[in-house]
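Box 3.1 A note on notation
Throughout this textbook, protein chains are presented in two layers. The first layer is the amino acid sequence; the second is a token string describing backbone geometry. Keep the layers aligned when reading.
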Amino acid sequence: MFSHSSIATNQRYSFISLKDLLAKASPLRSGDCLAGIAAENDQQRVVPQIVLADVPLRQFLDEPLIPYEDDKVTRLIVDDHDASAFEVVADKDPASWFQYAT
């Protein structure tokens, strides 16, 4: 299970899951505010964006945001996943992925 914490401006930010990290890194949306998952301010949004840039791509496959049983798109991704092709980039984070892809 994913968990990460980071310190910025003498404050610790903790993320209990990949879902939590993505929710905090997302642009402000009223639905996220109503659900209580949005970052409380811009700094609380920027820190997870920085953390997210270092998450290996494998983590997105290992920790589906929506359970396999509940979502057709998740099932499609998991069922059609080509592990050998993915292995080349699995341990890259999004920042290095862009360097790899160009």
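Residues 42-52 form the longest helix (11 residues). Residues 1-52 form a domain with the Ribosomal Protein L24e; Chain: T; fold (CATH 2.30.170.30).
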